[in-house]
């Protein structure tokens, strides 16, 4: 199986789109979203589960999403829909399959088994279809590390706050207190496993200031990105995930200095009066990647 | 494929179309209702006939109410209606008859 080069791509924003609605899936690339999440699950009415697949297939095959990654959320493993969902995703060439309500590694492996079969059936390169898991229950959150390490295809985990707080017997308060433990557990598990971590949606579109604060918080916690439900949320997420000029210049120096000092056999040194060693390298690289994505990097790295 | 019973797919929402198929009378009987029929009628008919040919359907009454659907949406709704008419929801021929 190939190591998929897109496994660790930039995913600051991931926007939910109902695969049942042609008006939503025909041109969402205009918002310059990192990942589009075409939904076959909750957004699609029970009476349209079958027809949504045809829309999805042709959208995947014919619409040029101009660099936005195409994630598809399949129906849950407790339905009789998910296996055909996987076939259509793989046949259409979806980049990532999102498993809802993931509780343990066995669920990921069940999906992976069907993906392997579908990649063979539809002549797709083995390993070309990636997986991500939504954790929507206390059990899922408890098993975050097990889920994160369950497959080589796993890109990361996303918190689904609505279902999770129901399971926790509370509600979304807007303060984030009810999600604190899950967020912390998930980001630690994801980092320990070397995969990404995505935060839940913010549903109150009248409170954009609250949204901004939440995105800033999850950014500071280490999350890779935020799930979005409205185009108005995209720019705020990208803005918060754009490094400042000061951070960019410093990161550039760190990368160049580490490359230079490594060649000279020096391990630890200072940049602008701060102690720097190899531990800063990946973070600096990531800052440059984020700056490039935001179109604010003018350097030569 | 043989159309077994009447079936509908799609909606009247903007950018969508609603496709109805019924068992035919030995041929393809095509009806279109679209605000842009004078401009895109021929193209919609072409996509419809191609899609039906891919599915191997040559005996059908098909009517389309178009609300500004792209070609890929028209295809999807025709296929949706045809597979509903034969009650097939699994092991669909993605990339084969559906293309």
Task: Give structural notes.
The complex is a heterodimer of chains A (301) and B (99). With 301 residues, chain A is of the alpha/beta class. Chain A folds into 2 domains: 13-240, TIM Barrel (Alpha-Beta Barrel); 245-293, no CATH class. Chain A has 12 helices and 10 strands. Chain A has helices at 22-25, 49-62, 82-92, 105-121, 138-142, 144-148, 161-167, 180-193, 208-221, 232-240, 245-264, 281-293; strands at 13-18, 35-39, 69-73, 96-99, 130-135, 154-159, 196-199, 225-228, 269-271, 274-276. An 8-stranded parallel β-barrel of chain A has the order 1-2-3-4-5-6-7-8, surrounded by 4 helices. Chain A has a two-stranded antiparallel sheet with strand order 9-10. In chain A, strand 2 (35-39), helix 2 and strand 3 (69-73) form a beta-alpha-beta unit. In chain A, helix 3 packs across helix 4 and helix 9 packs parallel to helix 10 (232-240). The model of chain A has no long low-confidence stretch (mean pLDDT 95). With 99 residues, chain B is α+β, with helices and mostly antiparallel strands. Chain B is built from 2 helices and 4 strands. Chain B has a 4-stranded mixed sheet with strand order 1-2-4-3. In chain B, helix 1 (37-55) packs across helix 2. The longest helix of chain B has 19 residues, at 37-55. Chain A binds chain B through residues 21-23, 26, 50-51, 53-55, 57-59, 61-63, 83-84, 87-88, 91-92, 122, and chain B through 9-10, 13-16, 69-73, 75-77, 79-80, 83-84, 89-92, 94-95, 98-99.
């Amino acid at each position: 199986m190939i190591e998929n080069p897109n496994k660790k791509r930039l995913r600051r924003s991931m926007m939910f789109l109902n695969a049942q609605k042609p008006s939503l899936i025909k041109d969402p690339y205009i918002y310059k979203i990192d990942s589009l999440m075409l939904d076959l699950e909750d957004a699609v009415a029970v009476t349209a589960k079958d027809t949504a697949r045809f829309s999805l297939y042709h959208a995947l095959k014919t619409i040029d999403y101009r660099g936005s990654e195409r994630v598809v959320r399949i129906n849950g493993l407790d339905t009789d829909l998910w296996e055909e969902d996987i076939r259509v995703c793989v046949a259409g060439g979806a980049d990532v399959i999102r498993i809802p309500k993931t509780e343990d590694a066995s669920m990921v492996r069940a999906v992976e088994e069907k993906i392997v079969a579908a990649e063979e059936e539809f002549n797709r390169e083995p390993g070309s279809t990636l997986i991500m898991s939504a954790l929507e229950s206390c059990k899922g959150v408890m098993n975050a590390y097990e889920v994160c390490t369950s497959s080589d295809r796993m890109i990361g985990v996303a918190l689904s706050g609505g279902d999770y707080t129901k399971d926790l017997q509370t509600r979304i308060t807007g303060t984030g207190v009810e999600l604190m433990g899950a967020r912390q557990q998930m980001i630690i598990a994801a980092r320990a496993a070397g995969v990404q971590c995505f935060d839940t949606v913010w549903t109150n579109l009248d409170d954009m200031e609250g949204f901004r604060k939440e995105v800033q918080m999850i950014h500071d916690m280490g999350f890779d990105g935020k799930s979005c439900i409205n185009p108005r949320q995209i720019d705020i997420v990208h803005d918060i995930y754009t490094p400042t000029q000061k951070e960019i210049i410093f990161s550039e120096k760190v990368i160049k200095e580490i490359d230079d000092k490594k060649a000279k056999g020096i391990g630890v040194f200072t940049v602008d009066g701060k102690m720097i060693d190899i531990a800063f390298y990946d973070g600096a690289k990531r800052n440059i990647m984020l700056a490039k994505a935001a179109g604010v990097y003018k350097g030569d790295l | 494929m043989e159309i077994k019973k009447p079936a509908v797919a799609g909606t009247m929402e903007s950018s969508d179309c609603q496709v109805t198929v019924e068992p035919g009378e030995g041929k393809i009987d095509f009806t279109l209702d679209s605000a842009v029929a004078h401009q895109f009628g021929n193209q919609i008919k072409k996509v419809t006939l191609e899609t039906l040919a891919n599915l191997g359907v040559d005996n059908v009454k098909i009517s389309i109410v178009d609300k500004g659907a792209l070609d890929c949406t028209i295809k999807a709704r025709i296929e949706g209606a045809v597979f509903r008419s034969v009650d097939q929801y699994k092991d669909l021929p993605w990339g084969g008859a559906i293309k």
